[in-house]
Write a structure and sequence with these properties.
411 residues, mainly alpha, Herpes Virus-1, three-stranded antiparallel β-sheet, two-stranded antiparallel sheet, 44% helix, metal-binding
Length: 411
């Protein structure tokens, strides 16, 4: 907003005001109010003038329809004017960034003197544009360059450009707080951020593990599919290349079969007319796109038909070789997976054997302890029942198993 341009009817009031302070015509707070002498109704000066402009000497009150003379109505009381001036409003430069709240009576002084966002004349005499008061120390319309992207703009636009438009300024990563250029934010989150969630490298081969990227190396050490991922990727790439080559050969073969079929369906006179020996092309369809040689290359063959049949057989053999190669790659991949599964089964069996050996050792130690405790308890019971005078009835001491290395499984 420029200096001196304040529309009091468009102000945003901080709190609701009393309905008695509202003009019946414009339905907003009174602006320069006047009073009708006959009925004491108040209106804005401009509103009443607009209403009575069609009749200068007679009319009715817009509020009570009482006939009377509206021109020359008196001004409102000083008390009403003071109440209106004490209403708190927001600065009209609020959309530009001013957050001040002032009384309506002081609004013009705030806008014309104190508000930093009011538009004033540029301090440069050669510049006829407007500038905000806070930037009035120097001209902001001279072109400058952004330090990051070297884009030319005005000083007034540089701040917003740096925050929202410039792709080369550094911003903190939302996950790891690392400082990265704005243009590489998505790439950093997708491939480099250690705090972002990422899938196992062998996800496409069946591993469902998903965790933060910084934990993936420890998972890759234990994951068998992750170890095989480079070999599986290479095999997959090779198989895709073989499939593409096979599809191209199939297209060429189909085109040749179609041309050969059309040639066979032609009558003999048509063949003589349409297939002269001087011409390099022998069929209605142009098969030069498939790199067929010229006529002089057909000399080892009895006719162009035999040469075309030989090309057909060569293509068929090439397709067969490609199919065999693909089958061989598939067989190798199956054998690799089978060997890896057998290795894992052997490791599990070894761990089971170790666990069984530990269980047998624990059982042996427990039995030895029980055998050492049992004879003492049995002798005490026999002495209490029979007396010490009958040595023949005392149970002999049970043999204690010796601690040897027999039956142990070394770890």
């Amino acid at each position: 907003m420029e200096e001196g341009e304040v529309d009091l009817r468009a102000l945003d009031y901080v709190s609701a005001y009393d309905s008695n302070l509202m003009c019946p015509i414009c339905r907003s707070a009174f602006v320069d109010p006047v009073v009708v002498a006959d009925c004491d109704h108040h209106f804005c000066h401009d509103c009443l003038d607009y209403t009575t402009s069609w009749n200068q000497y007679s009319g009715t009150c817009p509020a009570c329809r009482r006939p009377g003379r509206l021109i020359g109505s008196g001004s409102a009381s000083k008390l009403l004017l003071n109440i209106l001036d004490d209403l708190v409003v927001k600065c009209p430069n609020q959309p530009e960034g001013c957050d001040k709240q002032v009384k309506r009576g002081h609004l013009l002084d705030h806008v014309n003197i104190y508000c930093d966002y009011t538009l004033i004349d540029c301090p440069d005499d050669e510049c006829d544009r407007k500038v905000q008061r806070k930037d009035g120390a120097h001209c902001v319309h001279q072109p400058v360059s952004c330090l990051a992207c070297r884009h030319s703009m005005t000083v007034q636009d540089l701040h917003s450009h740096w925050k929202t438009v410039c792709a080369d300024h550094d911003i903190p990563c939302p996950s790891c707080a690392a400082s990265i250029p704005y243009r590489y934010q998505q790439t950093h989150l997708a491939h480099h951020c250690p705090e972002a969630n990422a899938a196992c490298p062998a996800r496409q081969f069946g591993c469902p593990f998903n965790t933060k990227r910084k934990h993936l190396p420890s998972h890759a050490i234990m994951c068998s599919l992750a170890k095989l991922a480079p070999y599986l990727s290479a095999q997959q790439q090779r198989q895709d290349e073989q499939d593409q080559a096979r599809q191209l050969l199939e297209k060429k073969l189909q085109s040749l079969q179609k041309d050969l079929s059309e040639y066979r369906n032609m009558s003999q006179p048509d063949r003589r007319v349409s297939v002269p020996r001087e011409e390099p092309s022998y069929f209605p369809n142009n098969i030069a796109g498939f790199e067929l040689p010229d006529f002089q290359d057909f000399q080892p063959h009895a006719s162009p038909t035999q040469h075309l049949l030989s090309l057909h057989e060569n293509l068929r053999e090439e397709v067969s070789r490609q199919a065999n190669t693909i089958h061989e790659v598939d067989t190798r991949l199956s054998m690799m997976l089978l060997n890896e599964n057998m290795r894992l089964k052997d490791e599990l069996a070894y761990q089971g054997a170790q666990l069984s050996a530990l269980m047998r050792q624990v059982g042996w130690l427990t039995n030895a302890r029980l055998q050492a405790i049992q004879p003492t308890s049995v002798s005490v019971v026999n002495q209490a029942d029979q007396g010490p005078s009958d040595p023949s009835r005392i149970n002999p001491r049970m043999p204690v198993r010796r601690t040897t290395d027999e039956g142990r499984t070394k770890l």
